[in-house]
Amino acid sequence: MEQAPKAAEAPQAKGKKTWVVIAAVVIIAIVIVAALYVLRYPPFNTSDLGTPVAIVESSPPSCGTIQNCYYDPAIKNVTVNTKVTWTNNGQNPHTVTTDPSASPLDSGTIAAGGATWSYTFTQAGTYKYYCTIHPFMKAEVIVTIVT
Question: How far apart are CA 127 and CA 116, in angstroms?
Fold first, then answer.
């Protein structure tokens, strides 16, 4: 009938409960701060990037043949007022360029490693483009009017 050890155990249980309460308060505070941050600074909206076209290099760092470097997809169908974004996922610079007399695409150099360039198509038509650095890379965007 020893009750002294039980009295000693009671403060330990109380100490554990205190730490659990403190941990719960800290977690709740972190959740509240995170929620307020998201409300103040919403996450990046990927729809701002537009319709994607990837610039692919299947066997970098060489870009010697059409099999190694290409636009994906090669034919992109969109409607008028669609923004298309090209992303250079490769290790070499590339361009999105059309014959100036045919249509207005001229990205300049799109740097390697994830750089992007976007264009909003405001008129219906077929826009054939190529990479001025690797002229065998060819693709097109077909723009139609929504009926």
Answer: 18
**What's residue 29's pLDDT?**
84
Q: Is 113 left (phi over 0), alpha (psi -120 to 50) or beta?
A: left
Task: Clarify whether residues 35 and 63 are in a common domain.
Answer: no
Report which secondary-structure segment, H or E, holds 15: helix 4-40
Say whether both 17 and 52 belong to one domain. Answer: no
Yes or no: say if 122 and 103 are a contact pair by the CB < 8 Å rule: no
Range of the domain at 139: 46-144
Same domain, 51 and 65: yes
For the chain, 147 residues long, the average pLDDT of each consecutive 10-residue run is 53 74 86 69 52 78 74 92 92 89 84 93 92 92 89
